């Protein structure tokens, strides 16, 4: 394990039949560091994030968070341990309001603090919910206040819509709700899988600024992003993958200019669109700024 790493994954491997989607990957993130993972479609980025966050089980490898072995924990236990993630296409509970979606993040945190006594603990919890003593009402009021504060991170995008069901929101707003819910967990590490996927140019810039603000708060962030402009601006370090393996790692500029990375993108001809992949490696080009989804 790399010394000083908050999260350390070593030898992570995942096979799907004959495909080795992730092949012996090591990934180390220091506290407060912003690490982006790039690579052409099918490189293994999302599978790697799924393995680190408990959405999938690795065949080999180990993940340590602050010295604790969290390998293959369930997503719920991962959340309790402090690993929060968002998904490539966004996942929210459509029939629940914005408030309730974000409260779920708070609730997971509270559950983590409670003793896990079978039968007795759930019964006590139900009784507390039915009787609603003053302590429960105060706790709920505090959580709702916290949700309002988290949602305010997104300016006026979500605050006026706190009581609306999320199915009624725009796609970009649903993705904001997902990040708000992840923040409500008070995560030790925030894993963002293409937070700007499917967003237009102005929504992308807005999301980039939000992620930048989260970085400036000193959060530890792992990002998958195809929009290289965002990667170049935000990352302390970049890791490039291809065919399940790490092919380059270092400063954003060094990885962008690495011949192996350029070749990996060119080998795939295009990244999700129709333009030559080369353009997407240049920050400030229309593809880099405008998206590849
Ligand atoms: N559940 C699965 N079953 C079978 N193969 C899978 C599964 N999930 C991923 N794969 C395969 O593993 C490889 C890596 O896929 P993955 O989605 O992790 O790539 P990616 O780098 O995230 O790509 P993208 O940028 O398109 O999201 C691909 O060949 C993919 O087809």
From TrEMBL:
Keyword terms: ATP-binding, Nucleotide-binding, Transport
InterPro entries: AAA+_ATPase, ABC_AA/LPS_Transport, ABC_transporter-like_ATP-bd, BCA_ABC_TP_C, P-loop_NTPase
One GO BP: D-alanine transmembrane transport
GO molecular function: ATP binding; ATP hydrolysis activity; L-isoleucine transmembrane transporter activity; L-phenylalanine transmembrane transporter activity; L-valine transmembrane transporter activity
Protein name: ABC transporter ATP-binding protein
Boundaries of every ABC transporter domain copy: 7-268
Origin species: Amaricoccus solimangrovi
Organism domain of life: Bacteria
PANTHER family referenced in this protein's UniProt entry, alphabetically: AMINO ACID ABC TRANSPORTER ATP-BINDING PROTEIN, CONSERVED COMPONENT OF ABC TRANSPORTER FOR NATURAL AMINO ACIDS-RELATED
GO cellular component terms, A-Z: plasma membrane
Any one Pfam family match given in the protein's UniProt record, by short name: ABC_tran
